[in-house]
C-alpha cells in the first residue's frame, strides 16, 4: 500500500480504536480483582448494562463468541439441538465451538433478510422421543451480519419468541449489533431484549470499545454464567481498565451509530451510480456487501488488493464480492476517499 495515502479501514467495525477520552477513562479506572467480585468498574458496567437494556443482571465477558457459548452451554445438554438461521454467527465464525464446548448440534433454517422462517423453525423442533435429539434452544441474530447487517423487525422476533416458548425452547438473542438495530429501526433496545431469555451484545464493534461483550439475563442465569465463564478461561482480574472503556462506550456512542448508517448509505449510492457493481443485500445499518458484475472490473480478492493500494481496507468475501463496514473510525472524508478510490479502480479496469 502506498503509505502517503490515508488508510480507511472498512474491514469491520471491530477495527475501531479507543478515542483519547476513552483511553483517559481506562487509565483512570478504579480496579480490583473481579474473581473476588471487588472490581468496582466492572460492577458498574454490569449494573449499568442491566438497567439500560432491562434485564436483571449482566456479565462482562471477553467476546461475543464467549457470550454465545456460555448461553448455549447453560440452556442445553450434550446431544441437544439449537435452531439458528443459516447465516448465524455460531454456524460460521465461532470455530466449531458449539460442538467442542457444548456438544450440541446446530440446525440451520432459512429465512429472507436474516429473519428465521417461523414455520420452518417450528417444523424442526423434535418431538420428545428417546431416539431423537432434543431441541432446546432457538438463537436469533440481530442485526444479521451475513445478510448485510439487516434488522430483524421486533414484530418478527415477538412471533419467534412466542412460538418458541410455546414449545419450551430457551431463546437467545445474539445481539452483537443490537444497538445498530435499535437506532436504525427506532425500536427501543428493551423491546428487542424482551423477545429473549438471554442476550449478548458487543462493546467492541460499533460502540467502539477495544475489548469485550456483555451477556445478560436473569440473576440466576448470570450467577451460573460466571462459573461457565471461568471454565472457559474467561475469569478477569483487574479488568476494570477494560470495563471503563465499555462503560464509556455505552454512555457515549449509541446515538452516534446513526452517523455510521448515514455514511453507509452515502457509499451505497455512489457504488450503485458506478453501474458496475451490485449491492447484494439491502443496507439497513452499517454493513455493505457488494459484487462486481461487469467483466474487466476487479472483483473479490483483486478488488480488495486494488483498494488497499488506494489506502482503503475492505474484506473480500467471495470471488466476486467485498464487504465494507462503516464505524466511528470512518469519517465523511474517509467515505469520499473510498468513493474516489473505487472510481479510479473502475476507470483503470
Structure overview:
The chain is an alpha/beta fold and 349 residues long. The chain folds into two domains: 8-15 and 256-348, Aspartate Aminotransferase, domain 1 (Alpha-Beta Complex); 31-252, Aspartate Aminotransferase, domain 2, CATH 3.40.640.10. Helices cover 42% and strands 16% of the residues. The protein has 14 helices and 13 strands. The chain has helices at residues 20-28, 40-53, 64-75, 89-92, 97-102, 118-123, 154-166, 178-185, 189-193, 219-231, 240-252, 257-274, 300-309, 332-348, and strands at residues 8-9, 57-61, 81-85, 105-109, 135-141, 170-174, 198-202, 213-217, 277-279, 287-292, 312-313, 315-316, 321-325. The strands form three sheets. The chain has a seven-stranded mixed β-sheet, sandwiched between helices. A hairpin with a 4-residue loop joins strand 12 and strand 13 (321-325). Helix 12 (257-274) runs parallel beside helix 14 (332-348). The longest helix has 18 residues, at 257-274. It is globular and about 60 Å long. The mean pLDDT is 97.
Topology overview:
Elements: E1 8-9, H1 20-28, H2 40-53, E2 57-61, H3 64-75, E3 81-85, H4 89-92, H5 97-102, E4 105-109, H6 118-123, E5 135-141, H7 154-166, E6 170-174, H8 178-185, H9 189-193, E7 198-202, E8 213-217, H10 219-231, H11 240-252, H12 257-274, E9 277-279, E10 287-292, H13 300-309, E11 312-313, E12 315-316, E13 321-325, H14 332-348
Parallel strand pairs: 1-11, 3-4, 3-5, 5-6, 6-7
Antiparallel strand pairs: 2-8, 7-8, 9-10, 10-13, 12-13
Helix pairs in contact: 1-11, 2-11, 3-10, 12-14
Amino acid at each position: 500500500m502506498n503509505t502517503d495515502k490515508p488508510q480507511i479501514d472498512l474491514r469491520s467495525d471491530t477495527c475501531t480504536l479507543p478515542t483519547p477520552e476513552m483511553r483517559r477513562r481506562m487509565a483512570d479506572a478504579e480496579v480490583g480483582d473481579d474473581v473476588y467480585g471487588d472490581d468496582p468498574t466492572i460492577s458498574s458496567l454490569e449494573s449499568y448494562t442491566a438497567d439500560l437494556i432491562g434485564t436483571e443482571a449482566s456479565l462482562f465477558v471477553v467476546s461475543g463468541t464467549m457470550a454465545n457459548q456460555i448461553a448455549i452451554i447453560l440452556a442445553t445438554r450434550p446431544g441437544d439441538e439449537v435452531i439458528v438461521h443459516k447465516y448465524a454467527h455460531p454456524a460460521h465464525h465461532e470455530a466449531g465451538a458449539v460442538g467442542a464446548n457444548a456438544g450440541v448440534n446446530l440446525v440451520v433454517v432459512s429465512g429472507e433478510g436474516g429473519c428465521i422462517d417461523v414455520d420452518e423453525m417450528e417444523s424442526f423442533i423434535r418431538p420428545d422421543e428417546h431416539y431423537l435429539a432434543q431441541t432446546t434452544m432457538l438463537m436469533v441474530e440481530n442485526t444479521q451480519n451475513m445478510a448485510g447487517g439487516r434488522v430483524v423487525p421486533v414484530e418478527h422476533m415477538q412471533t419467534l419468541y412466542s412460538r418458541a416458548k410455546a414449545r419450551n425452547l430457551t431463546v437467545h438473542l445474539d445481539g452483537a449489533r443490537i444497538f445498530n438495530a435499535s437506532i436504525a429501526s427506532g425500536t427501543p433496545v428493551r423491546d428487542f431484549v424482551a423477545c429473549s431469555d438471554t442476550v449478548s451484545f458487543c462493546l467492541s464493534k460499533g460502540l467502539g470499545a477495544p475489548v469485550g461483550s456483555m451477556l445478560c439475563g436473569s440473576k440466576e442465569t448470570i450467577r451460573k454464567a460466571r462459573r461457565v465463564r471461568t471454565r472457559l478461561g474467561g475469569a478477569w482480574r483487574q479488568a476494570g481498565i477494560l470495563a471503563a472503556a465499555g462503560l464509556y462506550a455505552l454512555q457515549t456512542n449509541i446515538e452516534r451509530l446513526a452517523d455510521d448508517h448515514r455514511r453507509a448509505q452515502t457509499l451505497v449510492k455512489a457504488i450503485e451510480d458506478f453501474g458496475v457493481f451490485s449491492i447484494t443485500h439491502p443496507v439497513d445499518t452499517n454493513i455493505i456487501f457488494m459484487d462486481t458484475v461487469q467483466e474487466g472490473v476487479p472483483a473479490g480478492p483483486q478488488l480488495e488488493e486494488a483498494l488497499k493500494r488506494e489506502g482503503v481496507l475492505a474484506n473480500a468475501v467471495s470471488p466476486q464480492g467485498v464487504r465494507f463496514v462503516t464505524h466511528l473510525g470512518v469519517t465523511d472524508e474517509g467515505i469520499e476517499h473510498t468513493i474516489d478510490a473505487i472510481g479510479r479502480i473502475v476507470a483503470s479496469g
